[in-house]
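Technical appendix A lists one of the benchmark inputs used to test multi-chain prediction within the project. The record comprises two sequence entries:
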Amino acid sequence: MVAETNQGLTRVREIYQDGPRRVKELQAQGNKIFGYLCIYPVLEFLTALDLVPYRIFGDMREPITRADNFMPTVVCPFLRSCLDLGLKGRYEFLDGIVTTHICDVGASLHSSWDYAVRTPFAYHIDTPHTVHETSREHHRGLLDGFKKALESYTGKEITPERLREAIKVHNRQRALMRELYDLRKLDPPLVSGGETIQVAKALMSLPVEEGNKLLEEVISEVREREDGPQKKSARLLVWGSILDDTALTEMIEDLDANIVMDDTCVGSRAYFSDVELTDDPIDGLAHHYLVDIKCPRTFRAGDFNATTKDYMADLESRFSYLADYARDWKVDGVILESVRYCDTHGYEVPQLRDYFNSIGLPSIYLEHDYTEGALAPLRTRAQGFLEIIG
Amino acid sequence: MAEEVKKRALNRLKSMYALRAEVDKMYQGGLEAEQEGKPVAWVMLEGWANPILSAMDIITVYPENYSSVCAATKTATPYLERADAEGFPSHLCGYARTCIGYSAEMVDLGGGIPPEAPAGGMPKPVLLVGSGYVCDARFKWFQALGRYFDAPVWTLEQPSPGARESLEEGAYERNVNFLIKEMKAFVAFLEKLVGRKMDWDRLDYTGGGTVEINRLRWDINQLRMARPGPMHTRDFWSVMSAALYRGAADPEVIIDGHKKMYDEVKYRVDNKIAAINREERYRLSFEGLAPWHSLGFLEDLADRGWNFVIESAYGPQRPVDIDLSKYSDPMERYVRSRYRSLSDRIDDEYEPEEAAEIKEDIRRTGTSRRLGLKHVRDYQCDGIILHVLLSCRAASSGLNLLAEQVKDVLKVPALVIEGDIVDTSLFNPADALRKAEAFEETMEHYRRLRKEAGMEW
């Protein structure tokens, strides 16, 4: 059992090291644990039904040995790792799994999971990839299907009242996380990039209210701490695909740089916008989970109906939030990172570099194959980048 | 004595050549349209846009197909290298990287066509019609072309529900309604772009032509079940472009070409003429996209008696007769004439008992081991080739699962050949041929297993 005396960052580190331990305790008490992939499944539905959401991660320290039978080596190694862990029984405790069409490989993972891992409940939301009106309407309809499937499985109804309560609790977590990120605006930041990943990963492994309590402890502790990150020459923003292990961030932070902000999905992407409490709460959820979350898997355009194109205006409409991050967190440079074979992030890279060039912010692209051993050569490149911006 | 000239291993269909020539006309039509001041759109293959664009007299050119032309003519490498130099990761789609490199070259030339471009090249677009259907990374590709062109991008969305969710009550109507609205929004955008109204009667004509072409392609494929297989995958690939990337061609021209092809294939079936000029030792399915740069590899395999009798990509859908008279909205007619639910497709494809079992499997487990394998069974394949593409997730990610299922359910083995659709450096034909030789023993082994299990072939 997790020692009850441990709080704040100590407990975060424990959960980061052994994510399933707490949810297995909860399961022993009769709770159902629902795994989810990526940040697009609508977690508020789960919370409204007292199902515990538990995010599925890979393990970059575990060699992929069984997933090859189902997914070729030329696809996202993170998703291959998730499936590999599923095949090895690491997610045996899950009562359900919820995925969305994050990408084709993510959808393919769901099929393989259904075929070879098998979880008592499984659902796949065909989340659209565009945000124009018809897609938003369609997404709203898809959530009705998801809701019905959950209600049928649990025998309970997701009432608007329960859903509103769930939205409030999740919004509370989003607000608290933003509060924690504010503490990274200081120089030196009060919390490191690696610690932030640990916090986010811990939150994604706990019932949301329990996570909120932990997050409050973390914020109090961090405000008072004297053992936080040291002042360094560079303040960096990290943009990119999933970082669910601290290895890359710690490698960078071991150099003369602090990672003060991120745009990743075990980070700000999951927390930087609230769900609007609409008359029909599903409307707000449908909008949030399609439009508000900013991941390259979704096609955005400045004006979808525009009959002319202005490239720089388009970049501005898509990426200006990153300029806001850079300004507010006083960023000196940007690391664009992506796991190899992530097409949606890959296409974005030259456009992002164009954008950062236009606002005078240096950037570098680092690609990795989701193994710890492959990070070493990247250290040299990161070091070189820091020398250039230094 | 003069050495007898060995007959080529592949027995190509004569009717193929006229259809293949239509693709050249598509590119020529793009160039002429630009000269005449007509709007030219670069379009991704997704099945819905071409009849709409044709009905509005917008000329279509297909960069995916063009990249395969570059690969086949071995002119793609400089474009790939240019895309790398532009900062795009080298693991991205070979079609996309070819197109990006080509576009960057066009910008260097002030919008002109690179002189070395095959088939006359693609003219500068006034519109980019993107899609994520089948391959969702394509959403990003045309957006990335914003670096090079000031053409607007319109991205068509299509539903891709999971199997279990497809069987939900109301799912089909939800998807149909979505498609109708999506296509209408597209039309409204086009009307604004070109400043004229959609000709709805013409959409009935172009859309109806697409349905008819699909029907003929289906009928031809049905004939391909015969032994020996009368039409090789190589011929299928050669003509599929005319059907799927038909540009501004009158549907009747393509329909006529396919009728002639049907007649020729039927003649071969009736007279037991094979698609290879060798004994048909093994019947195979090609899973994945073609190695456009190395199609001669199939000639080598045909020489060993390998007949590729079917393939997984670009295939036609089973045609259905739908009474469209009750739909007054032409866009609804257009969508309903073509969009089928998974439930209907299972009912269409399988005998009632098996269909019910498959649906029950899906409801219970989310999948069915029999779904997706039917072509291997129907065409009585001895093996399947998985062409795992180093630059294509969409076509590759499901192949290993398919191989597991085919082996489990049908006792048919799979051979993995890694390569690429465009990049020649990622494919080693000699190595692939060595693997193929060894695979013959595996196919023989599984042939014995099928016999022991009392299977049909």
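Residues 171-194 of chain B form the longest helix (24 residues). The mean pLDDT of chain B is 94. Comparable benchmark entries are summarised in Table A2.
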